[in-house]
Specification:
alpha+beta; Beta-Lactamase; five-stranded mixed sheet; transferase
């Protein structure tokens, strides 16, 4: 906790403790100084003493959670003005003091009325509030000086010494001012209560939510206050039950005030829910609906800035009405940190008393708009990255095909021609009887054939011609035939696929079989290729040692990149000792619907969605599949 904050808390605690001590001193000393036969009921005295304690406790809470220090200070002043009538016997010999206390002993009622007026904003709101407060203060000042100038010892319940400030004996004038002051106070309290009640009845849901308890407490207090004033004016003895109800009603005023502040604070906390709902940039209709639910204001409307048309419009594109502000509503403008307009929020005017709430709403809206814009930019960037990766893969495949064609049509053809010439030369040497030369030429022909074979294998590894000629149905069986581990192949694509898909699938299977041969210690492998819906599904399974993990090698990270570049996914199931199954899914992008001519029984009809592929044992268990990612055996994959 910061030192400045600790200091403020310490000062506030000291102030509250001081005024509580003063109040208790007046209450206890007055009770003890009163003759036993004149003492009020102990229960009533206890309730009377509890009223300032409740105000002091609520002052501490209001200081801690309230947006404005004025209400808490008014509660502290109330405690000082809560002077019990029984305290006068304690100061009856202090002629300079008792007239002053007699002049201000009803100040607590003025403070309580102002406290109600400043609820919940912490300040006087309109002209009516200012008139009421001014009238109460003027009446209090007039009463104070009248008491100093005219009050005698008979005006207080004690055997007090004469009033040293007294200017004249005018008991009638004093009684008129005294009763008139009480009458004005009751009238002002009734006006405040009626205004608050009417505002609550006619108010919107947010207005009622903010002032939900105060009218009840105020009306209870005003009713008992009016009855007490009548008893005082007529000289009839007070009613103990009525006085007790009045005390309880008075004590409920600060409690209701603090409850209202806590309610407003909880409304601000609900902005966090609003930010959670709209953190990904919710659409405009959902945003307005969520905002209305958060503020509990069905009249909320949100108008968004249309940069193209240069005006504010609602979610449906309708422009804002010039009369939106009015009829109990206010407009909250929301702009970006750079000052660019974002939106206007029309809300109930009572919510302007809770500017922290509206500031939170503005921040949530800005965050929602920024998140939506950022999300769109990220999605656009990711789409560009995917397209770029796909273009790179396509360019690589095209380069492979070009190199394969160059080797086939260039160097390979030249080597074949050289071989034919050597064969002719060898035959001629043998016909002329030069067997030594013929033998050397045969050796050269053998070396040339071996080089030609290696060249063909090199060209095949760069880009197999069978893949271009016959697709996966011809290329995968030929690929499996070159694997040192026996491989069972089942290829069921529906006709030819897109070149990029075929080449990606081919090299994925090639790398997977290479891993099987190098690391799995398997004795058999299975490869399945089939179309399911609009996806090409490849499964490569072996009966090796299993235990493959992406964290233990990078054998097929290149394949993962290839598959991801075409919008596919890679899954792995590799329990230790139970073999490894790699499952690859990618968009099929079928180009033709008919099967290749002459492909025979190896080309079957595409598997329907949900239909298990042949040799179901080879298909991976979906529960054991992870995506994306492909790894090899424990040694390297």
């Amino acid at each position: 906790m910061a030192p400045g904050r600790r200091g403020r808390i310490a000062r506030r605690t000291a102030v509250i403790a001081t005024v509580v001590a003063i109040s208790l001193f007046m209450e206890v000393s007055g009770y003890l100084a009163t003759p036993v036969d004149l003492r009020p009921e102990l229960s009533w005295t206890t309730v009377h003493a509890m009223v300032p304690l409740v105000f002091a406790a609520c002052a501490g809470v209001a200081w801690a959670i309230g947006p404005n220090p004025v209400p808490s200070r008014l509660m502290i002043v109330f405690v000082l003005f809560w002077i019990p009538q029984a305290f006068y016997p304690v100061i009856e010999t202090l002629g300079w003091l008792w007239p002053i206390l007699r002049g201000v002993d009803l100040g607590w009622a003025v403070v309580a009325g102002i406290l109600v007026l400043v609820y919940p904003r912490g300040g006087l709101g309109d002209r009516f509030d200012r008139v009421i407060a001014t009238t109460a203060l003027v009446a209090t000042v007039v009463n104070f000086f009248t008491v100093l100038a005219l009050a005698g010892p008979d005006s207080v319940p004690c055997d007090c010494v004469p009033n040293p400030y007294r200017l004249a004996e005018a008991p009638t004038v004093f009684a008129i001012v005294d009763i008139g002051y009480r009458f004005v106070g009751v009238a002002l309290a009734i006006a405040i209560a009626i205004r608050l009640l009417l505002r609550w009845v006619r108010g919107s849901v947010p207005a009622r939510a903010v002032a939900f308890l105060m009218p009840v407490a105020l009306l209870s207090w005003v009713s008992t206050l009016a009855t007490q004033m009548i008893h005082y004016a007529t000289g009839t003895p007070p009613n103990l039950a009525l006085d007790t109800v009045s005390l309880i009603a008075m004590a409920s005023v600060p409690v209701c005030f603090v409850a209202g502040i806590a309610h407003a604070r909880n409304m601000r906390a609900r902005v966090a829910d609003l930010m959670r709902i709209t953190r990904e940039g919710a659409d405009r209709g959902l945003w307005a609906e969520s905002l209305a639910r958060t503020l509990r204001d069905d009249s909320v409307r949100v108008f968004w800035w249309d940069e193209e048309r240069g005006r504010y419009v609602d979610a449906a594109g309708r422009p804002i009405d010039s009369a939106e502000e009015g009829r109990g509503h206010s407009i909250l403008p929301v702009a970006s940190p750079s000052g660019l307009p974002i939106a206007l929020i029309r809300h109930d005017r009572v919510l302007t008393d809770n500017m922290r709430l509206l500031d939170g709403v503005s921040s949530a809206l800005r965050l929602s708009v920024d998140n939506g814009r950022l999300r769109s930019e990220i999605e656009r960037t990711l789409d560009q990255v995917r397209q770029s990766r796909q273009r790179i893969v396509e360019a690589g495949d095209e380069a492979r095909r070009r190199i394969e064609r160059d080797l086939h049509d260039g160097a390979q053809q030249h080597l074949v021609a050289v071989g034919m010439q050597l064969r002719i030369a060898a035959n001629a040497a043998r016909a002329s009887g030069d067997d030594a030369v013929a033998g050397e030429l045969e050796q050269s022909i053998g070396t040339l054939n071996q080089g030609l074979k290696e060249l063909r294998e090199l060209a095949h590894g760069i880009h197999p011609s069978l893949l271009s000629q016959g697709g996966l149905a011809l290329a995968l069986p030929e690929l499996a035939g070159r694997c040192p581990v026996p491989v069972d192949i089942a290829v069921q694509p529906e006709g030819r696929l897109a070149e990029l898909v075929e080449s990606t699938a081919y090299f994925a299977v090639a790398e997977s079989l290479a891993n099987v041969a190098k690391h799995s210690k398997a004795t058999r492998a299975w490869v399945r290729a089939y179309v399911e819906g609009d996806e090409l599904v490849l499964t490569i399974r072996d009966n090796g040692v299993g235990g493959a993990s992406l964290d233990r090698g990078t054998g097929m990270l290149g394949i993962v990149d290839r598959i991801d570049a075409v919008g596919g996914s890679v899954g792995l199931a590799s329990p230790p000792g139970a073999g490894t199954t790699v499952t690859i899914r990618m968009p099929a992008h079928l180009e033709v619907s008919e099967a290749l001519p002459g492909s025979g029984a190896g080309l079957l009809v595409a598997a329907e969605p949900g239909v298990e592929p042949p040799d179901a044992a080879a298909a991976p268990d979906p529960s054991n599949t992870v995506a994306p990612g492909v790894v090899g055996s424990p040694a390297d994959r």
